[in-house]
Amino acid sequence: MMRRRYRPWAERRPPWWPENEPWPPKPHVLAGRRRFFRRAAVAVVIVVALSVYGAFSLVSMLAAAVGIVTPSARGIASLLPIGAVVGAAVGAAVVFAFARRVAWPIGAVMDAADRVAGGDYTARVAERGPMAVRGLVRSFNTMAGRLQSHDRVRRDLMADVAHELRTPLTVMQGKIEGLIDGVYPRDERQLREVLDETHLLARLVEDLRTLALTESGGLKLQKEATDVVDLARSVVRAFDAEATARGVALRLDGADDVAPLSIDPLRVREVLGNLLSNAVRYTPSGGTVEIWIGHTDHAVTIEVRDTGEGMSPDELARAFERFYKGASLSGSGLGLTIARNLVRAHGGEMTGRSQPGRGTTITFTLPRA
Q1: CATH 1.10.287: does it fit domain 157-216?
Q2: 265-281 and 335-345 helices cross at what angle (nearest 10)?
Q3: 3-class secondary structure for 189-204?
Q4: Does the predicted TM-score (pTM) go above 0.70?
């Protein structure tokens, strides 16, 4: 069997190490790491040597007891140096095996951890060594992958927030500058347009606040016993005028004998309002939007069905993502994300199904306490 050739530090550059960073790492990092492993190796050698030495001492005493060696201090002491030498040799072998199987993989994890601490979340470590060390490496790679994903989401979120805030601010700035320069008449209509943009901006800021609270777990629900059917009926009445103006039939169907549910009525009304707003907006004239309510002993199920244009499988898969808007959709892209988070805050879940040209159905559940 061929022996592995020893490679100096300069030739041990990992494949994931950045090209713009020097190898080996900084001297003080390597010095501290070598000091740690040296102390660990010395401790292992001492423990193993003492163990083997003690074993030889016990064997010597037993041999003297049965008459194999002279039962004298000189006879027993003659075996002790042999025990010390064998113990040191075994300890060195154990340390070498430990270094190959455990220390080097852990050293790779420590190198990669330094990179992650420096903000480079692409660091990964090859899995090798015993099962426990492989589990450590696998956990580290999973952690680094999640950090990389969260960092990407954070960057995308900041860019999306800046984009969404820029639109109403730009409109407001242009209107106000036009009013000052005399381009637009200073009448009520122009002021109302500016006011509408401030409402849009305030709504977007409130949506961002609600989104942050739901995703951080900091949203406090004001729960009370609520008749879900009456709540849905009031939401339908609120959208009846808009649906009539668009030529869309809006109706409520399903069970009427639903026992009161412990929920936050304002938040559930917000969920239903968001779903109905989307359904009415994207259902053509002559179409139908329906709220269906069902219940069991464990939960209440609410479905919002429409006969609109529907979504493709790719659009449906991303419908609940933050700031996602399909090619024909408008708005901030936060509505469904917030609605799902509010339902999850109640302990429920929200799902959707859709077919292009055949409408969309959004279903959510509200469990009983």
Answers
A1: yes
A2: 150
A3: HHHHHHHHHHHHHHHH
A4: no
